[in-house]
Structures are given as structure tokens and as C-alpha cells.
Amino acid sequence: MDIALFSPSSLFAQDDDSSTDEENAEAQQKFVERNHQFPGMELLIREFTFHQLNANLLWPGSFAFAEWLVQHKSWIEGKRIIELGSGTGGLAIFLWKLFQIDITTSDYDDSDIEENIAHNCKVNGVIPVLPHIKHSWGDAFPTAYPDWDLVIASDILLYVKQYNNLIRTLSFLLKMRMPNSDEPIQRRNAKENGKYPGASRPSFLMSWRRRIGKEEESNFFNGCENAGLEVQHLGSRVYCIKPRETDANKTD
């Protein structure tokens, strides 16, 4: 498996070399705290004034996704969830406080990101802090058999140069399930009875608002299809991606 080596120039469609490494390192140490309004809740979120991996701010897609999830809460009730590209942790903190769900944050293998998410958990009363996994897309995942029911993310299609690595990670999280896992019998029975939409197999629920080109969008969705994943548009620029039945036990 190829290693996902991230750098500012490896993330986006257009390179930007306008800042030196020294300037970036200095800027990374600065923070600003802002109050952000989520549906029915205000959170105080500390953001980087700059982060070379773009984990610095809460983006509009997070708030739009939060509204959609509140309106479609059956998608997350009773689920074990992992969020990719958590950034500041704002969305995960909101979902934990509102629904008391089992949610794990995840982002690029970077200690500053992890520490900032922990800080935001504490100042918003989430103690102990949410579990966090440092993972660069495309790398070997630290958990051999992931047992999350739902993977979520917002506005991660901006990283057009990392689509292949993202799809590798998604394929692993959605397909590599341990048979007869030790999830609680009550939740497993609820799945089998169809209480939770799309819960018979792990799903990836994604929202995005940041504009990308139609070609890049097609490249991502075509890449998912080629990897044995089904793409369903749920409306409001929210997509559900699952493994095809014939490919459910395969990984790249």
C-alpha cells in the first residue's frame, strides 16, 4: 500500500508555495477562539490562525451537515461513529453533546491537531475527551478490524490530490469488518430489524459545500465505484457511500 505523504502541495489541485516553512511553523503556533452557532447550541472553538494541512477552521459544510443530521437523526442514533478530517473537532463535539453518541475523531497524523481537538472538548464540557485516531489517508489503519457503523465527513473533497488515498481508507473502513463482532446485541438486533437506515452494512455519510470542479467531483465518485462502493445522493449535497454486496468482503 502506498504511503499517504501529505504536504501543502500534495493536498490541493493548485500548488501554493507563497509561504516559507519558517513562516508556516511560526503561524501554526497562533490560535483564535470563536463562538460558533450550531443548531440549538453555541460552542467555543479554538482554531489555528494557520495550519499547513488546512485543519485550522470550521468550514460552512460542518454547520450545514449538522443541520442535516439533526433533521435526519435516525442515521446516527445508536451508531458507533468515526469522523474523518475532524479538524477542530467542532462537529463531533456538537453531535456528542446533543445525542450522547459514541463518536471518534480522526485526522492527519499530527499532534497539534489532536491536542487542539482535546482542548476544544474540554472547554465545551466533553470530559473525558473524545477518542481520537491519528491517521493519514492511504496508510495502514491502526485498527485491524474497524467496528464503526458509520463514517462521516464534511468538506473533505477539497483535497483532490488525495482521492486515491481517501478511497483506500474508506474501502478499509467499510469492508474490513470482523465476522460476528462483539457489538452489543441490542444494537445488532436493532440493525437487523431495520430500525436504523442503511445500518446492515457500514456506511460513509458525507456532506460538502466547498466548491470543486465537476471533473474532480466525478473523479472521486468514479473512483469509489471502481473500488466496489455504491454512491447514493440523499439531497442537500449529502451522499451515502456503501460497499456493494459482492464487494463487501474485499479491500484494495
Outline of the structure:
With 252 residues, the protein is an alpha/beta fold.
Q: State the order of secondary-structure elements, H for helix, E for strand.
A: HHEEHEHEHEEHHEHEE
How helical, in percent, are the residues? 25-40%
Fraction of residues in β-strands: 15-25%
Overall structural class, as computed from helix and strand content, comes to alpha/beta
Q: Order of strands in the sheet with the most strands? A: 5-4-3-6-7-9-8
Total beta-strand segments: 9
Measured distance between first and last alpha carbons? 9 Å
Unreliable residue stretches? 1-19, 181-187, 194-199
pLDDT averaged over residues: 82
Biased composition (Acidic residues): 14-23
Region (Disordered): 1-23
Protein name: Protein N-methyltransferase NNT1
Question: Describe it for me?
Answer:
This protein is an alpha/beta fold and 252 residues long. Helix content is 32%, strand content 21%. It has 8 helices and 9 strands. The protein has helices at 8-11, 21-28, 60-71, 90-99, 111-123, 163-175, 185-192, 214-226, and strands at residues 31-38, 41-48, 80-83, 102-107, 132-134, 150-154, 203-207, 229-235, 238-243. The strands form 2 sheets. Strands 5-4-3-6-7-9-8 form a 7-stranded mixed β-sheet, with helices on both faces. Strands 1-2 form a two-stranded antiparallel sheet. Helix 6 runs parallel beside helix 8 (214-226). Residues 1-19, 181-187 and 194-199 have low confidence and may be disordered.
